[in-house]
Amino acid sequence: MRILFLHPNFPAQFRHVATALAKDSSNQVFFGTIRREGSLPGVNKVFYQAKREARPETHHYVRPLENAVLQGQAVFRMAEQLKAKGFVPDVVYGHSGWGPTLFIKDIFPEAKFLCYFEWFYHAHGSDADFDPSEPLSYDDEARIRIKNAPILQDLYSCDRGLSPTYWQRQQFPSDFQGKLNVLHDGVDTEFFRPKSGAKLVLASKKLDLSHVNEIVTYATRGMEPYRGFPQFMEAVSLLQQRRPNCHVVVVGENRVAYGKKLADGKTYKDVMLDKFPIDQSRIHFTGWLPYEEYLQVLQASSAHVYLTRPFVLSWSLLESLCTGCLVVASRTAPVMEVIQDGVNGLLADFFSPQEICDRIEEALNHPDKMAQIRAKGRETIEKYYNLSVLLPKHLEWIQQQEEHTRLVLPSSVIPIDPIVSLITGNGANGKYQESKTSIETSMEVLQLNNRKVTAEEIVPLLTQYQMLPKFKQELVIDQAIAPFTCTDEESAKCHQEFCQQHQLTSETIRQNWLQQQGLTEAQLTNLATRKLRIEKFQTATWGNKLEPYFRQRKQQLDQVIYSLIRLKDADLAREIYFRLLENEQPFAELARQYSEGSEVSTGGLMGPVPLSSPHPKLAQILTINQPGELSPPTRIGEWWIIVRLEKLLPAKLDETVKQKLLNELFTTWLQEQLQPVAAKQQSMEIKKSA
């Protein structure tokens, strides 16, 4: 196979996969990049360089796009040179965003075009508006929208794409998510290993902490708000006051990798050291470290802090877990896909240095209790992010043919939806993979009395019994919740509640029920914990989006109590209205005497009900009225109504409302996932032509 990797940095996410392919002498592996430093055995580096940057007079919304086009042009010229030398790739695999992949289908139209999709930008609901102290302007919103232009071009052009986590894939437009597999780059679990009793000595940095028993570590590409550096430094100042023997080691460069730099030219490190009373003899900034020394830092860590906005998940989180670190991390969506609080790490509010400090102290105060959490952290990486498991899957994904294997029904012309293609097992992070091998469709899979059912009959029968939509729905849900697990305590509680619900009051009854249902103990556990795992998926996916969604839905969630009289006689309605205005009779008395609707039994009193429940015209009246205000007779259909708002009960984002909103978002997402492929394609065409 001839393959061309494209990434402005080298080797970035392609380190392991490029190295593995280059080990096979039958492969030709080229890597197009800007970065001249570094090499990989057997990988041929080729370079491209844009001739200029976006011009200052270019509209500032469009400058990132112009820079992407300039990178794409440079790659096109590099590709022409490769072509002239006889190298035409079978596969081009590039990172989307900077622009090197933009014109691949033009220079290599016959090549399979694969893309690594790391991030899709949103003005609201993820990183950009996460910090309430940094409100977005309309200008920011427009700029962020246009920033996706080169990514959208790649989504359209590529044959297939890959995202490293489920949450990151969910940031991409739903119309394109079907093109994207979820597969992490993987962590080398043999390299990142715990080392019992490790002491930290970095000779190259003249740093000797071998005498220190408490070392708190923090690793980042740049010291910046996106990775919670200001909150971390404030937490350090609190920690130093409480623990005079604790030392802190910060790995990373004094720069901004994501987000905005400070206007005055200062760095966040300088600002934080000036702002807080920090003993600089007990905080050590190592700068960038080679992997061997970085590993030493992790192995000696008493507690490792990882903070991030809802943004791209860092390798450092997974590497620290794999090394057996006790990780204190931010309670944000990308982190919550990996860490369960109290199970394989500790979580804290991103914006609360106090809570971050408290969780660090919890880790330092209870080393025995934390040993189990450390072990669970490494177990998480070994199970879901293990390079030795994921790398073969990554290689298989690259070499996968574009023809989609489908279950063929020789005796039936019923079309098979791709979403119910044959499932063969669990892939990375529990994601189901489609079978790539032909199967014997006449295999008998079920016998009931004298009736034998073969594999080729399953889908037609599910369709006939109207069970196929439910089956597809459950498959989609299983795929989504695969990465989410439950603690032993949670599993036990779920099991107990499940048995109570199904009246499995004794072990004998439970065993008989399992036999009747054809379930194993493992399947029972999966079934019992399913609701909780769905809730965890909902929280990890939409938890950070609830506040803006709540604001959007608040008017429909607000509840009202109101008094209502319905009549079909317009003149009588006006007469009653004037009686009420003059306080001649109480509303309840008139309602019982004259109202012709069901409210007659309550004296006209209705509610509390959500504002979304009444007729839209009635809801509009209730929305604009003040409590105690009487509205004149209004015609709604065949009725004349007289209404008085008694009380407005504003909705609050409490736990009940949070779960209601999460369920709404989950239901909408599920409907999108189940949308027929033809309808999705039609939707895409409409959007393209708009």
In short:
The chain folds into five domains: 2-182, Rossmann fold (3-Layer(aba) Sandwich); 201-385, Rossmann fold, CATH 3.40.50; 414-471, no CATH class; 559-649, Chitinase A, domain 3 (Roll); 654-689. It is built from 26 helices and 23 strands. It is globular and about 90 Å long.
Molecular structure report:
The relative contact order is 0.07. Strands 3-2-1-4-5-6-7 form a seven-stranded parallel β-sheet, sandwiched between helices. The radius of gyration is 30 Å and the shape is globular. Helix content is 42%, strand content 17%. The longest helix is centred in the first third of the chain and has 22 residues, at 63-84. α8 (229-242) packs across α13, α18 packs across α20 (521-542) and α20 (521-542) crosses α25. With 690 residues, the protein is an alpha/beta fold.
